[in-house]
Every structure is written in C-alpha cells, then in structure tokens.
Amino acid sequence: MADITIYHKPTCTTCRQAVQLLKDSGTPFTAINYYERSFTKTQLKTLLKKAGLFPKDVLRTKEDLYHELGLAKKQLTDDELFDLMVKHPDLIQRPIVEKGDQAMLARPADSIKKLL
Description:
Elements: E1 4-8, H1 13-25, E2 29-33, H2 41-51, H3 64-68, H4 78-87, E3 96-99, E4 102-105
Parallel strand pairs: 1-2
Antiparallel strand pairs: 1-3, 3-4
C-alpha cells in the first residue's frame, strides 16, 4: 500500500478537514506544510501531472495576490505559472493529496476518500 502525503496549510479550513479525515480513517500519512517546506517547481509539476491537472486548474483566482499581480489580465505559460506558484504558495489551491502514482486536489475535503 502506497504512503499518503498531504500538502496543506494548517490554517486552511479545508486542509484541517482533510487531515482530520485521514486521521479518522486510521490510514498512516505524512502532512507537509508547504509554507514551511516549499514546493520545488519539479515537485509541483510532478504532483499536478499525477492529478491530471494543469497550473490554471489549481490557481486560486479569488486570492488577493492573484488580483495584485494582475494575473487575470495576463496570458501566462504553464511554466510561468509554476514559477509564480513556487514563489507565492498562496496562489495554489489546497490541499493536494498524493498516494503513489496518484494525486488529487482534495476539494471538497471528503473527496480524499477516493484515495483511501
């Protein structure tokens, strides 16, 4: 059985719910606060590839920073979006859960059950 890793922000309500679901399931997991242990560009690319997602799929468009950077008005490449997300983790939807060769954006939190 593959290990589960959850990439989260501890102050995020959805992240806390997802972590609690994992605890309640009794499934061993590793929780990584990606604000303390930042994603690398390669790591983020790999996670999204496993999830079948593109950077625009996990971009937090309601985030103040998204508007401050004027991202809605820019046509950025995936590579440019990855660079921005690594530099500014607030731009990444969360939590992201990984299990072996699978990953998913666990929104809503109970969607995590698909990996258990």
